[in-house]
Design goal:
Blueprint lengths: L2 H15 L44 H8 L16 E11 L3 E12 L8 E10 L4 E10 L5 E11 L2 E3 L12 E19 L2 E17 L5 H5 L5 E13 L10 E11 L9 E13 L7 E14 L30 E12 L6 E12 L11 E13 L4 E9 L5 E7 L4
Antiparallel strand pairs: 1-2, 2-3, 3-4, 4-5, 5-7, 6-7, 7-8, 8-9, 9-10, 10-11, 11-12, 12-13, 13-14, 14-15, 15-16, 16-17
Length: 419
C-alpha cells in the first residue's frame, strides 16, 4: 500500500466518527472583510452574517423547521462565527450523471484561530456510488491568528470508474470510452498578506493516477498516449484577490485567483509541463438592497507547455471545485486549453431566506491536444432551488437541473453555492 493511502484511511475514519464534514466541490473559505472586536476577548463583536434579513425579517434555516416539526425547544443561536466551531452537515442520497445513485455525507465546519482572525474552515465529503466509485476529498483553509498567513490544503483519494469522450469541445457524446483508475492528490499552498485583500504565495502540488485502464473503443486516448500510471508533481506560484462578503454564499464583491504550475521530472513527474489557471468572479446585489444576487464567473485553464498525462488535461468538472459545466457529465469535454464562463441569478422565494431559487447559463470551449485551436462553444443552462441549511454561514442545500447539447441533462445536488 502506498504510504499516503494510510493518511487517507485515517481521514476516512475521522469523517465517520466526527462531524467535521463539508462539501467536496466548493472553494475553501477565504474571508476578507476586516473584522475588529471591541476587545480581544469579545468574540461576539466579530460578525460575518446575521440572522436578520435585508427587510428586517428573521432568517430561518432547516434546523428551525426540524425543531418545530419535532416540537423541540430551540436553543439560543449565535449569529457569529467564533473560536467555537460552527457546523453544517448533511447526509444524503443523491444522483449525478457520473455517479448515478450515491450515498453522500457532506457539510462544513467554520471557526477562528483568534477573536479577530478570519474564518478558517475544514471541508470535505465522502461518497459511495452506484457506479462503484469511492471519493474522499478534504479541503482546508486555516488562517494564522494575525491574518498574515493562509494555509490552503486539498487532499483527495478517488477510486473512479469514469468514461472519457475524446478531446476537444466538438467531441461526440456517442464516442464514450469507459475508463477506470485510482487517483490521489496533495495540494498545499501558503499565502501571505500583501496589502488590502491581496495575497500571494507558493505551494507544492501532486496528482497521481494509477491502475489506469480503458476499453479502447475510440482512438483519442490511444492517440494521445496511454499509460498505466502518470504523476504530475511540481511547484505553484499563487496570487489571490478576494473581496467577497461571504465565501460560502457571496452577495457582493469579487474574487480573482491566479495559479501558475510547473511540474518537474526530478520531483517525480512523468513529464515536464506547465499550466496557468485564471479564476475571476463578480457578485452584484441586484436589485440593490435586496436578497438577490447576480453572480458572474470566468474560468480559464491553459496548458502553457509540455505534455500532461491524459487525465491531467483540463476537463469539464475537473476544476478544483468540480463546478464547471452544469448540464454535462464530469469529463464530457477534455483538452489542452479550456475557456469557461457562467452567469447565475440567485433570488429569494421566501423573505425569511429559507427557500430560494436560481437560474444559470454557462458556456465552454476546449481545444484537443496541446498546440491545437479551441473548438465549438458548448452551452449549459437550467434552474435550481436553494434550501437554507445554516443561517450563520449562509450555507444552502443546492438542487439544480442542468441541460446541455446532444441530449445531455441531469440533476446536480450540492452543499453550498457552485461558485
Amino acid at each position: 500500500m502506498k504510504p499516503y493511502l494510510i493518511l487517507i484511511l485515517f481521514f476516512a475514519g475521522c469523517l465517520f466518527v466526527t462531524p467535521i464534514l463539508a462539501q467536496q466541490n466548493k472553494p475553501v473559505i477565504i474571508k476578507t472583510i476586516e473584522v475588529k472586536p471591541k476587545n480581544e476577548r469579545d468574540t461576539a463583536a466579530v460578525k460575518d452574517t446575521t440572522i436578520i434579513g435585508p427587510k428586517g425579517v428573521k432568517q430561518r434555516d432547516l434546523s428551525d423547521i426540524i425543531e418545530e416539526a419535532l416540537h423541540i425547544k430551540p436553543g439560543k443561536k449565535a449569529d457569529t462565527v467564533s473560536s467555537k466551531p460552527s457546523f453544517s452537515v448533511a447526509p444524503a442520497i443523491g444522483y449525478t450523471l457520473v455517479s448515478r445513485l450515491a450515498v453522500v455525507v457532506a457539510g462544513n465546519i467554520a471557526f477562528r484561530t483568534a477573536p479577530a482572525s478570519r474564518i478558517s474552515t475544514i471541508v470535505g465529503s465522502t461518497a459511495f456510488t452506484q457506479n462503484k466509485q469511492f471519493t474522499l476529498p478534504i479541503l482546508s483553509s486555516v488562517w494564522s491568528p494575525s491574518n498574515q498567513f493562509n494555509f490552503v490544503g486539498d487532499y483527495r483519494f478517488y477510486k473512479y470508474p469514469q468514461s472519457t469522450y475524446g478531446l476537444g469541445s466538438s467531441s461526440d457524446f456517442t464516442h464514450e470510452d469507459p475508463m477506470d483508475y485510482s487517483y490521489f492528490r496533495i495540494y498545499e499552498t501558503a499565502l501571505r498578506h500583501v496589502a488590502g485583500n491581496l495575497y500571494a504565495g507558493a505551494g507544492y502540488i501532486i496528482d497521481d493516477h494509477w491502475n489506469i485502464t480503458d476499453k479502447g473503443l475510440f482512438n483519442d486516448y490511444a492517440g494521445y498516449g496511454t499509460a498505466r500510471n502518470t504523476i504530475a508533481s511540481g511547484f505553484t506560484l499563487n496570487a489571490l484577490l478576494d473581496a467577497r462578503d461571504n465565501a460560502i454564499n457571496p452577495s457582493k464583491g469579487g474574487y480573482i485567483s491566479v495559479q501558475y504550475r510547473d511540474n518537474y521530472r526530478f520531483l517525480g513527474s512523468t513529464n515536464n509541463w506547465q499550466s496557468l489557471i485564471l479564476d475571476v468572479r463578480k457578485y452584484i446585489n441586484l436589485p440593490d438592497g435586496s436578497g438577490n444576487t447576480l453572480a458572474l464567473w470566468s474560468y480559464d485553464w491553459l496548458i502553457l507547455g509540455g505534455r500532461p498525462g491524459f487525465l491531467d488535461l483540463p476537463s469539464t468538472q475537473w476544476d478544483a471545485f468540480s463546478a464547471t459545466g452544469r448540464g454535462y457529465i464530469q469529463g464530457r469535454f477534455r483538452g489542452a486549453q479550456m475557456v469557461y464562463a457562467e452567469a447565475e441569478y440567485r433570488y429569494r422565494i421566501l423573505n425569511n431566506g429559507l427557500l430560494g431559487g436560481v437560474f444559470f447559463l454557462n458556456a465552454e470551449s476546449l481545444s484537443a491536444a496541446p498546440g491545437t485551436r479551441l473548438q465549438g462553444i458548448q452551452p449549459g443552462y437550467g434552474p435550481g432551488l436553494r434550501l437554507k441549511l445554516n443561517t450563520i454561514s449562509k450555507t444552502n442545500i443546492c438542487v439544480d437541473y442542468g441541460f446541455g447539447r446532444q441530449g445531455s441533462r441531469g440533476l446536480f445536488i450540492d452543499v453550498g453555492e457552485i461558485f
